[in-house]
What does this fold into?
Amino acid sequence: MTAAVRRRESWVTWVSETAAPESAAPPASGPPGNRLLQALRGRRPDRTPVWLMRQAGRYLPEYRTLRARAGDFLTLCKTPELACEATLQPLRRFPLDAAILFSDILTIPDAMGLELSIIEGRGPRLGRVLRSEADVRALRVPEPESELAYVGETLRRVREALDPEVALIGFAGSPWTLACYMVQGQGDAEFALPRGMCYQQPAVLHLLLERLTCAVAGCLAAQAAAGAQALMLFDTWGGLLPGAAYREFSLRYMARVIERLRGSETAAHCPVILFSKGAGAHLEQLADCGCDALSLDWSMDLSVARRRVGDKVALQGNLDPLALCAPPELLRREVARILASHGAGGGHIFNLGHGVRPDTDPDAVAVLVDAVHEFSAQLPDQLQPPA
Ligand code: 1CP
It folds into this structure.
């Protein structure tokens, strides 16, 4: 065992046993600023920034009330006043370092004419699906300023209401993940139809992914223009593809989206966070695809990920969302373990390995956020990430 690992492990024991908030952290030094943006630039702010995927949503009683008031999920997304309120709800409860736009990755296929509906208790359904070259050729790339104007309006409202120290994140699905829904028509554990297309109709799939690359880059650039300070690409279903197909159908198009953003007027300098679930095997290539940060699922230790990518990108993650159902002391210990696994180097954003589950107790989220603050403010500066 190396000295660094020994120091880290003793620190985990120490932080997890230092339970009482009264006995906690020495005062944080320096102006806090926007912690998320600092960490995205590879720095280590006074404490580790924290936000959670799906921090807005069904686990919050106030979200359920708002959704009932809206009548349905899409009306909620498309009414800026309500979407702004849904975005801000978790920030009113928890001292989080970022807000994420309340919307959905499927608003882009909806704007491309595929007629999205979200069925209570069953999830998203598309009224039209893509099966042939003619279907793909008939798709139009949406104009974000008109067909997705509600997204820009929501972002402007949220930015105005937010504390300047809280970052605002915009997002879209990756071309591959959007293609999965547009071919399958709904959520699925296997997505056999789009995966089969890789072998049966690769040219049609590439045509679709090219259109989606334009649509996604255009929508993200518009989100940056409307006030998003960081952009996240959700490649939730990338990990379903075998290695070579992953590079051909998923990674390549995410790199192209980022290249387009870098060439755009509004998002050239906007940091990009990439979440490719189940794609740990491709970490090095992901770190080289032009993104600023990788959001990791729970399957890999942050220390291993950090060793593999060096200091090329920031790392976000990666607590198992199910740890939120643990008793508070165990949850605190898991938080400490994640922080120690990354170590005291810069460029860590605390998050879950996937979204907050609808059956999560909001009090557990409060315990998590407090523990991140408490432990990361104590993280000894001399602690180095593992060699
Ligand atoms: O109220 C409801 O019943 C709707 C549930 C819901 C919510 C709260 C859906 C339907 N979407 C959302 C919001 C959402 N979706 C956000 C903003 C909220 C936040 O993060 O705080 C974001 C970023 C998303 C992104 C999203 N939608 C992804 C990528 C991230 C991930 O979770 O992997 C995916 C795959 C979707 C599709 C989708 N939309 C909704 C559901 C239930 C799903 C998953 C469907 C499936 O099973 O495949």
Q: What stands out?
A: Residues 1-31, 382-387 have pLDDT under 50 and may be disordered. Residues 23 and 374 are 10 Å apart (CA to CA). The longest strand covers residues 167-173. Residues 1-50+324-387 form one domain.
